Amino acid sequence: MRKPISRRDVLKGAATLAAGAVFAAPARAAAPEPAAITPDLVAAATKEGKLVFYSSMDLPVGEKLGKAFEAAYPGISVQIERSGSERLFQRVAQEFDSNIHAADVVNSADASHFIPWKKSGWLMPFVPEDVAKHFPDNYRDPDGIAVTTRLWLSSIAYNTNLVKAEDAPKSFADLLDPKWMGKMVKGHPAYSGTIMTTTSRSCANSAGPIWRSSPGSA
Fold first, then answer.
1. What is the DSSP-derived secondary structure letter of residue 100?
2. Distance, CA of 49 to CA of 1 (rounded, Å)
3. CA atoms of 58 and 198, how far apart (whole Å)
């Protein structure tokens, strides 16, 4: 009989795998069978006592999620480490480089992060039963590595005291108009995954020059 392994053992093994497979194409494997929440699973998690969640979602949303989990599974605390997706990506890399494996679950607004994490062998395949039942296939990694848990809109807000509704930009492409030069403000793509995604799409769709916008009122 195989000796049961803990989450820490799995993460240590993943780090060892990553060291030798970082430049290699990962072997494709079928997703594991959906896992039900059994009393044994809850007991093992309760014994560890804490779940560390790296998340880029709004802190109030993450805290609400953590409290709901703690209410459903008394005895297991949720520690939420909230930061921008690009900062989390950097942190995870630094921690693995230092042989530190603190996070149990990572949430990122930049879907591209899961490509190098998966290639490096840093992610553990796991398919919760609820995910198998209720999530469409195109929201799930075919190898059981990741799942899309949230979708959102990245909208453009404008100052109604300075911009008339009929003159307001209707798309990100409209922001390429020189009239908005020096009148835009946005988050930094090195911090936010959402900003990184919208910036990348804007640049990819742009045929003109790219400039740095300075803080303004529009």
1. -
2. 26
3. 18
- State the Cα–Cα distance between residues 146 and 119, nearest whole angstrom: 13
Residues in the chain, how many? 218
Q: What residue type is assigned to position 105 of the chain?
A: V
Q: What percent of the chain shows pLDDT beyond 90?
A: 35
Type of residue at 188:
H
Q: Which H helix or E strand runs over 53?
A: strand 50-55
pLDDT band at 218 (very low <50, low <70, confident <90, very high): very low
The H or E element containing residue 52 is: strand 50-55
* Structural domains of the chain, with CATH: 7-139 (3.40.190.10), 153-218 (no CATH)
Task: Quote the tokens at residue 78.
Answer: 């949720």
pTM beyond 0.70:
no
Question: Distance (Å, rounded) from C-alpha 94 to C-alpha 88?
Answer: 10
Burial 76-94 (b: 16+ CB within 10 A, else e): bebebebbbbbbbbebbee
What are the phi and psi torsion angles at 68 (to 5°)?
-65, -40
User: What is the spatial distance between Cα 63 and Cα 135, in angstroms, rounded to a whole number?
Assistant: 23
List pLDDT tens digits, range 14-25: 332 333 222 233
Averaged confidence pLDDT in the chain: 76
CA distances from 175 to 55, 159, 161, 194 (A): 30, 15, 18, 17
Beta bridge partners of 140: 147
C-alpha dihedral, 91 to 92 to 97 to 98, nearest 10°: 70
